Amino acid sequence: MDEIGDITRFNNSKQLNAFAGIDIRRFQSGKTFFKDKINKRGNKHLRKLLFLIIQNMIKQRRYRQNHIVEYYDKLKTQPYNKCHKVASIACVNK
Questions:
Q1: How far apart are CA 55 and CA 92, in angstroms?
Q2: Residues 6+ apart with CB under 8 A from 15
Q3: Residue 22 burial by CB count (10 A; 0-12/13-18/19+): exposed, middle or buried?
Q4: d(CA 4, CA 21)
Q5: Which of 15, 68, 77, 82 is positioned for an S-S bond with 87, CB 3.0–4.6 A?
Q6: H or E, element range at 29
Q7: What does the pLDDT read at residue 1?
Q8: Which residue, 76, 25, 67, 15, is CA-closest to 46?
Q9: For residues 75-94, b (16+ Cβ closer than 10 Å) or e, as one string?
Q10: Reported confidence tier of residue 70, pLDDT bands at 50, 70, 90
């Protein structure tokens, strides 16, 4: 993971998410709340790499089950019913 460098410089996972640009950006004005989006201000190569790792984990789920794939399946079913990309980015954030 050459894109990250020294991982000890991050105190928690939120700082690593911000470095990758996958932290949530919320915008509101008065009583109006807009849709949450990812920030995209971080390292685009790291963000793409993490997304591809999650995609491979989802594709290989029949061979190896883990908590991230279970979280993806939970987001895809009722009552959440998230689309594929939203559920995948949520797994990257996890």
A1: 10
A2: none
A3: buried
A4: 12
A5: 82
A6: strand 28-29
A7: 63
A8: 15
A9: bbeeeeeeeeeebbbbbbee
A10: very high
